[in-house]
Specification:
This protein is mainly β. It has 5 helices and 13 strands. The chain has one domain. Strands 1, 2, 3, 4, 5, 6, 7, 8, 9, 10, 11, 12 and 13 form a 13-stranded mixed sheet that branches. β1 and β2 form a beta hairpin.
């Protein structure tokens, strides 16, 4: 069967904590599974856990990334300006964003149709590696490929919460990088506006309407 490219559009938050837990939150208002949020957790001992709101999403993410445990739990996100709250089973995570900085301004300057194009994403993969652990393109599990098209970036300046009744502590660098897939988040806690494309070999059962369209490069008018 012909591979399909599936589109996830939303935000990724990468946060380290002084308690040693590192978290990656994927908040996807647009996805093949509807509006969804998943949370990846790496414990100080290296144990990797996924929290997903449905078994269908949990299986898809677990087939793309690597975990020791997958838990299907209620997941909710609330946002009030720069303040975010994420709940996922035994996890409550609160974080607040700050300004964009130079990199965020550069990402915002790239026209949306170009920024989402897989060819462009592959082109900027090498310079992106200057940020330790960051990749924009690579091979995922089960023969899948992924493109991460970053379109904006804000610093995360506050963070806290609880996991399994234990305080997470304050925000800290994501160091060492998380080990869920071929790449990590920026080492400094950040919220990234991103369009993620996942190419799935023979994506049976996934509506073609959920797949990406061809790249459309911006044009100029006289």
């Amino acid at each position: 069967m012909t591979p399909q490219r599936l589109l996830f559009d939303g935000w990724i938050a990468g946060i380290g904590t002084t308690g040693g837990v590192r978290l990656v939150v994927g908040h996807w208002p647009v996805s093949p599974f509807g509006p969804v949020t998943d949370v990846m957790v790496e414990h100080p001992d290296g144990r990797r856990v996924l929290f997903a709101p449905t078994g269908e999403l949990g299986r898809f993410v677990a087939d793309t990334y690597s975990f020791e445990e997958v838990h299907v739990v209620p997941v909710a996100v609330t946002r009030a300006g720069p303040a975010w709250t994420v709940t996922a089973g035994p996890l409550t995570l609160r974080f607040g964003t700050g300004g964009r900085g130079g990199l965020g301004l550069l990402l915002r300057a790239v026209p949306g149709p170009l920024a989402r194009c897989p060819l462009w994403v592959r082109l900027i993969d090498r310079p992106a590696r200057l940020l330790r652990g960051v990749r924009t393109y690579g091979s995922a599990g089960n023969g899948r490929r992924e493109w991460y098209a970053a379109r904006d970036l804000h610093r995360i300046v506050t963070a806290g919460g609880e996991l399994d009744g234990v305080d997470l502590g304050g925000p800290a660098r994501i160091d060492p990088p998380v080990r869920f897939g071929f790449g990590s988040t920026p080492r400094t806690p950040a919220l990234v506006r991103v369009t993620t494309t996942v190419e799935v070999p023979g994506a049976a059962g996934v509506s073609a309407s959920k797949a990406t369209r061809r790249c459309r490069f911006p044009t100029t008018r006289a």
